[in-house]
Structure formats: structure tokens, C-alpha cells
Amino acid sequence: MKIDDNERIKDFYNYINNYKFIAHRLGFKMEGYPENSINNLYSILSNKRSLNTINGLEFDIRFSKDHIPVVIHDSNTSDVSESNKIIEITYLKELKELIFGYRKSDYNSDIPWIENNTFNIITLDEILSLLYENKRLINDKIIKIETKSIKINKEDLIAFNNILNKYKSLNDNIIHISFFPWNLKMLRILQKNNNERLTKTEFLSDFHFERIAENHYNSYFDGISLGVKETKVDGNIKINKAAEKISNLTEFFNNKRNAVDQDWLEKIIKSYGYAGIYTINDRNSILEFVSRVSSDFLKENSNKIYITSDNPKYLKKI
């Protein structure tokens, strides 16, 4: 590593106690259980050091065929379970019968996968129930719930909102986050129409978001997080199709740029009071972040930076 790289990383660590750290996919690399597993949460809640290391938790949800929000990142179960099931066309009962575990694509053991994994998929209700029971421990920690659907449908939206209403005491903790502004907008509209307390929202963007204002989505955001790495989506059919499904967003997705830079971070902080960064997991991603911001920026704004990481404990000790 070059000397100037070392100096840049030192800049990051000068303010390590100022950043707010969010445990990505329930802190799976921090606690050692599979991603989005409730076992990670049990471990964090029973470990004072783990609990004190983080300022919040993040996890993903998708909806089963019977409109039950389940905690999983991928649209199908092939890489994290014994079978290949598409979440949105599979009933919860069937999903609960499957064995889940560590990602097969990352699995590195002489023990056959099926013999070393005994986990089950969990629902949003189960996660929030555990957090509710431990409200005293989590106190004011952030709970980021990411909806992975490209365009959430009405039945799923209502089911999601009903569970949020079931745990109203967690409302101050919860932030609804998504790469897809439609999801943030539609939940906000539903809650307004029902005269309910509004759930905070955060837009996740790998892309230049200037044109989001032209599409009238920005009024539904309470915050924005930017990816730390450059995202190249030229020729990416999946992204383009996703954009076409969301009204007026094709042009937005076509205006791409490096996600993190100081100008945009400053604008986000000015607008929302903080800026989110995802995901910083190692020295390389730290360097990628600090190479795009000045030492003065970190000095002035480090307490307004929320960093999502697979393993905040690791970041704090390296």
C-alpha cells in the first residue's frame, strides 16, 4: 500500500468513533451466522460488545405468494437453501419447510453443505417481535428494512404496513429503504391515506439521482444512501427492464456516475442532515470512500455519516 493510501485510511480512522455503523444483513460477518439469520440477532442482543459496536441493523425482505414478508436478499432460494424456490410464487409454509444456511457460492468447507446448515427462513413479524421484546436493549438503534421488490404490489404493501402498525413502538427506530423509489412512495401514500404515522424512508442509489426531483419521488425520501463503489450498468438488461417498470425512471437510470463523491454527500447532508454509505467492509472499500472526500469534509461531517457494513466490529479494530 502506498504511503498516501495509508494517510487516507488514517483520515478515516481519525473519526472512527463519530460514524454511525449499521450491521448489514443483520451483521452476518460480525456474528458468523448466515446472512439475514435471526441467530445473528440473538447473538448481538446477548453480546454487549456487539450491541455497543453498532448503531443499527439492516435486513432485506421479499414477499411470499401469500403476501408474507420474509427476510431474504435474493429473489430465489437456490444459493442459500437446499432447494430452488422463487419467493414470490411460493407459500410461506413451503419456505418454512426448507433448510437454509450459508451462501453456497461462498461456502468453503469439507463438510457437505446440507450437513452443516440447519437454519430456517424467518418472517418480518418474527424479527420485529424479537426487537420489540428487547426494546430496552436496542433503545434508539436504527432498524433499516429494505424492500427488494422492483415494484411492490398492493397486497404486499398492505401486509407490510400491517406489520409495521403491529409494532408501533418501533416506529422511531424503523427506516424503510429501497433501491426502488416506487416502494418508498407507495408506502408513504398508503400511510397518509390511512392517517397513520409515517415510516421514515431512505433511497438507496448507485446512480446519479439529480433527475429524481423531476419525477416527483424526492418528496418521499427522508434520506439517501450512496454506494461506495462505482456501479457500471451500461448494457445491463436487468437494470434497464427494472427502470422501465417504474414510471419515468428510465432516464434517471441512464444518468449514471460514481455513487460517492463529496459534492453529492454535501448536498445530501444539507438536505437530510445525514448521508448513508454502503457497504464498507475492508481496507479497499475504506480507501475507495476516503479517496473521494477531503480530510476537512470528514472532520466536519463524520458524525453525519452512516456506514452500512457486513462487520462493523472488524472495521473498528483494523
Give an overview in words:
The protein is of the alpha/beta class and 318 residues long. The chain has one domain (3-76, 122-317): TIM Barrel (Alpha-Beta Barrel). The protein has 15 helices and nine strands. Helix 1 (3-13) crosses helix 13. The longest helix is centred in the middle third of the chain and has 13 residues, at 154-166. Residues 233-258 have low confidence and may be disordered.
CATH class, named: Alpha Beta
- What is the CA-CA span between the terminal residues? 15 Å
As a percent range, the share of helical residues equals 25-40%
Number of strands: 9
Uncertain segments: 233-258
Structural class designation: alpha/beta
- Beta content comes to 5-15%
Name the CATH superfamily assignment: Phosphatidylinositol (PI) phosphodiesterase
Taking the sheet with the most strands, its summary is:
8 strands, parallel, barrel
Number of domains: 1
Q: Tell me, what's the shape?
A: globular
CATH fold annotation: TIM Barrel
Query: How many helical elements?
Result: 15
CATH architecture annotation: Alpha-Beta Barrel
Oligomeric state, counting identical vs distinct chains: single chain
Integer-rounded radius of gyration: 19 Å
